[in-house]
Amino acid sequence: MMLELQHLTKIFNAGTVDEKIALNDLCLTVAEGEFVTVIGGNGAGKSTMQNAICGSFRPDSGRILLDGEDITALPEHKRAKYLGRVYQDPMTGTAAGMQIEENLALAARRGKPRTLRPGIRREEREEYRKLLAELGLGLETRLSAKVGTLSGGQRQALTLLMATLEKPKLLLLDEHTAALDPKTAAKVMQITEKIVREHRLTTLMITHNMRDAIRYGDRLIMLHEGKVILDIRGEEKNRLTVPDLLALFTKASGDEFVSDRAVLS
User: Fold this and answer.
1) Burial of 201 (0-12, 13-18, 19+ CB in 10 A)
2) The whole model's pTM is what?
3) What is the C-alpha separation between 259 and 42, in angstroms, rounded?
4) Is residue 21 part of a domain?
5) Is residue 130 part of a domain?
6) How many percent of the chain have pLDDT more than 90?
7) How far apart are the first and last CA of the chain?
8) Quick check: 222 and 252 in contact, CB under 8 A?
9) What angle do CA 207, 212, 217 make, to 5 degrees?
10) Containing structural domain, residue 214
């Protein structure tokens, strides 16, 4: 298994009136090359789970294994070389004041020893141009443009490319199309699918969009109150509709699906 979450528990504000059980004995395994979509209502534990994997905090109990290595106690900065992450906000994950090629060069050097060699080599620039051309957004002709001048969709696609440039052991997508308009979101999802499939990247994608959760990936999991309540794959997933999914959620949780931002149809 590429990722194993073993009995993760995280309680915020323990012992106070604001106590919140964010992860409740959460168990999940993800095989190498598997593309898993993650959905859930408000406060289900989706982002908390990803933040635990990234090392933003230590779980109160449980273990996190990545490619067989226990990384539970590994500091966040030391995990970064194994993980690729794209956030909801297109402004996160890139340096707005730097050029497109400079951002890509930083991503390519992540986790590697620093050298005194200045600048970007010609062959690197050609490789960046080729990769950008595959996005189909015209960025290959704008290598020297400042990232801050790009649209939200262009910037998110660039962030996705940067996150996968060095083929991470695990790619984490945290509602990475939620801030985009529907047409742009669809384009970024097409690019996501292409990159994940071509490189067989082990991927966890949190989404508020139930249609995307059903359409993309090999497997769909639903979180509720900090634990997995649905785990659907194969033909069962392919046959799913949004009403089916809502009915399954109600049956598994005994509750109504509640999300402020969920796209249901």
Assistant:
1) buried
2) 0.90
3) 5
4) yes
5) no
6) 65
7) 33
8) yes
9) 90
10) 3-82+168-253
Does residue 188 sit in helix, strand or coil?
helix
* pLDDT tens figures, 14-31: 889 999 999 999 999 999
Tens-digit pLDDT profile for residues 153-179: 999 999 999 999 989 999 999 999 988
**In angstroms, rounded to a whole number, what is the distance separating the alpha carbons of residues 141 and 14?**
53
Q: Where are the alpha helices (DSSP H) in the chain?
A: 46-54, 76-79, 100-108, 122-133, 152-164, 182-199, 210-215, 234-238, 242-253
In a domain, 97, yes or no: no
CATH of the domain at 229: 3.40.50.300
* Domain membership flag for residue 128: no
What per-residue confidence (pLDDT) applies to 264?
55
Q: How many CA atoms lie within 13 A of 247 on its CB side?
A: 5
**Which tens digit of pLDDT belongs to each residue from 80-113?**
889 999 988 888 888 889 999 999 998 887 766 6
